[in-house]
Amino acid sequence: MLEIKDLHVSYGKIAALRGVSLSVAEGEIVTVVGGNGAGKTTTLRTISGVLKPVSGSITFEGESLVGLVSEKVVRRGISHSPEGRLIFGRLSIAENLRLGAYNRKDSAGIASDLDRMYEMFPVLADRRSQRAGTLSGGEQQMLAIGRSLMSNPRLLLLDEPSLGLAPLIVEQIFKVIVDLRQQGVTILLVEQNANEALRISDRAYVLETGEVAMQGPSDQMLKDPKLRTAYLGVD
Fold it and tell me: How far is residue 71's CA from residue 83's CA, in Å, rounded to a whole number?
């Protein structure tokens, strides 16, 4: 479904990605883990058209994404839930969700998907008219994911969905991710909570200083001594 080959991305003279290659097959959850500054967020931002690569290729369902603006990437079937949530605090929950469907014209489908988001995240349904900026961190994360789903993506990019959240909320977020895969959404997940991310994903990549340092099936990666020491806190 998604194929990235030899991707190079720079911020001015600073190389952020240096020859990254990865793939995501339809129906998979693929996790990208790594330390701060490893290039995880840069990878997602480049896929979604926020950043432009210096070189390399990004293809989605056989068609190149390189050079496309973000709006056209969304129209191709990719949605990005960014690190930090970036919800519109002064707008209501309902307005934030509707903004996620800005590129759609099917009013009935949008209404149906709004109902689906409220079923998926009942806490949002109870306060749909409330300003999004008054929500807790966990509730804002649910809203950010819901907003990204309103475009009906076939591939969902999730950047640090559990960052800064209480353990109980983290558990709920990971359950939502698994449920989404069961509903047919393919997911590329960037996550510092490597232990939980590897437990729910099919395959994983480890980025270090802009390069792929390790890759493989998630269940095998969980057992890898190097990864367990570096990212799981296990000697």
Answer: 18
